[in-house]
Amino acid sequence: MIKETWHYTWPEYIAALLKKADMEYNSALFFVFLFLFLCVYFVIRNPKIKKRWILVGNLGFYLWSGWAALAIVGATSAVIFWAAGRIGKVYRGFEEEKQGLSPKEQAALLGNYKKRAKKYLLGALTFTLGIWIFVKIGRLAGFEQVKTFGEVLKEKGIIVPLGISYYSLSAVGYILDVYWRKAKAERNFLDLFTAMTYFPHIVQGPISKYGDLLQQMKKLPPFQYGRVCLGLQLMLWGYIKKMIVADRLVLYTSAVFGAPADFAGVEIFLAVILCVLQLYADFSGCMDIVRGISQAMGIELAENFRQPLFAGSAQEFWARWHITLGAWSKEYIYLPIAMNPRFARLTSRMKKGGKRWLSSFIKAFCPLLAVWLFTGLWHGTGIDYLVWGLYWCGLMTVSKEAKPLFDRLIKLLKIDTGTKAYGTFRALRTYLLFAVGRMFTVAGGLAGCALLWRRMFAQSRLWALFDGSLYAHGLDQKDFYIAVFGVILILFIDLLHERGVAVRERIGRQKLFVRWVFYYGALVSLLILGIYGPGFDAASFVYGAF
Q1: Are 77 and 161 in contact (CB under 8 A)?
Q2: In angstroms, rounded to a whole number, what is the distance separating the alpha carbons of residues 425 and 403?
Q3: DSSP class of residue 353?
Q4: Fewer CB under 10 Å: which end of the chain, C or N?
Q5: What integer pLDDT is reported at residue 535 of this predicted model?
């Protein structure tokens, strides 16, 4: 293989490498792309030109996945822009006509205008969600992912635009906000297209409100050394989480979940426990990277994780984990159902008919069920993901309905709920509940989940912890120690954040020598301990295919 490379000229050799390269956030290609992008971005002073340079960066980043994928995103942006504009025009007519009318007359008039606007809303939702559903069904049917429309027409597969689930949800939220008159329609297509294709967050989120992103892009600040340092710190921390911790742990967990029949007892239990840490390090690491890039550019993205491993209940966990998905589901699924007039009348009639508990239960359960069925299907299209959604819906329902019973039990047993020991117990309990939920999907389906449970209790295999056989499944002893140390470091930093310590700001206030000791130490650790090297294929972020 080495000799063959000498048949290429240098330009041909580089072109061959680039042809095979993926634009993953942890790939060498992305580092080069980002470096060149930021060098130009920081030189530009005019905010409007900065904004257009972001669009150029978006197009360059997205084109790497193919012209067809970019065309789909462009078409979605055009439909959303047009529909929002038409809805905005309808409501401007209402504002002109409502002058001099009483509040009651204005409400009736608004209802008529909403009917006119609704056809544009439904058209945009049908187009945007139709593409998303088509991709989901195509994946469920096992269609191969392709890059050109010609291959699609030949029934060879489907085109999956980067981050389709993320930009689709953001687009749906934007058009609904315009329809509900909570946001104004953007009048500049290039601005909206820039927000929809914003490259740091389009692949894996967070799910942004385009209104907030557009406002920030219209006031892009000049280069500021302190802000850029804070952003690069956050990026570096994200890469440490991903490349040192997550990419190590996945070597072991993927070996176990890929062939559960070959493992048993403590081997499977350890994989189930570690898969949660691996997912957290991977997903939150990506969020740190994209938020760090954005902070360096002067754009603040929504926080997506807030120390979820310290959560004491299922409700609290999902208020800390994938925060933007939870916020989106609450605003656009839960509340519209809970506040629907017909639904409210139904539960009200039950309450008046003496069915107070049933009325209260249905009022809370139905919107929650809709949220978790959607969340399950958003993560995947198999039956296992629906069961996963029902699992969490059931946990939250039981937690709410049984709370009075639990409170009485705690009082009866005289448990002091204010102690650190009780807080630790609650956090561990929540962690295990999340780990059990992961078992539904990590082994390829419900049959794989059942096999995991059977094999876990078939044998103990405790000897694997002492005879070295545990280190023969993807991770040797040294890598296990590195991964464990990395997990401890992540939990320690999260604990500091939980106690209100702003770690990056603390480092930024240190003397120059101390700061750069931290920076160089982290960078050298990443270079030495990161999972990469000759023949390395950048491991995709776990949510990167959404």
Answers
A1: no
A2: 17
A3: T
A4: N
A5: 42
DSSP 8-state assignment for residue 471? G
Q: How far apart are CA 289 and CA 329, in angstroms?
A: 24
Asked whether the predicted pLDDT for residue 527 surpasses 50, the reply is: yes
Residue 51 falls in which region: left (phi positive, over 0), alpha (psi -120 to 50) or beta: alpha
**Helix (H), strand (E) counts: the chain:** 25, 2
Q: What is the mean pLDDT of residues 324-335?
A: 92
d(CA 185, CA 89): 9
Q: Which range among 7-11, 294-298, 518-522 shows the weakest confidence by mean pLDDT?
A: 7-11
Residue predicted with more confidence, 418 or 271 = 271
Query: What number of CA atoms fall less than 13 Å from residue 304's CA on the CB side?
Result: 24
One-letter amino acid of 264: A
Q: Vertex 213, ends 207 and 215: CA angle to 5°?
A: 155
Tokens for 504, please give them. 């990056």
Q: Give exposure, 133-148, as e/b (b: 16+ Cβ within 10 Å).
A: eebbebbeeebeebee
CA atoms within 13 A on the CB side of 309: 19
Give the predicted TM-score (pTM) of the model.
0.88
Q: What are phi and psi of 266, to 5 degrees?
A: -65, -30
d(CA 477, CA 488): 17
Q: Which of 458, 361, 441 is nearest to 400 (CA)?
A: 361
Residue 305 — φ and ψ, nearest 5°? Answer: -135, 140
Query: Dihedral sign, CA of 180, 184, 187, 193?
Result: negative
Strand partners, 146: 159
Per the omega criterion (within 30 degrees of 0), is the bond before 47 cis? no
- In DSSP terms, 414 is beta-bridged to none
- The pLDDT value recorded for residue 6 is 43
3-state percent helix, strand, coil for the chain, nearest multiple of 5: 75, 0, 25
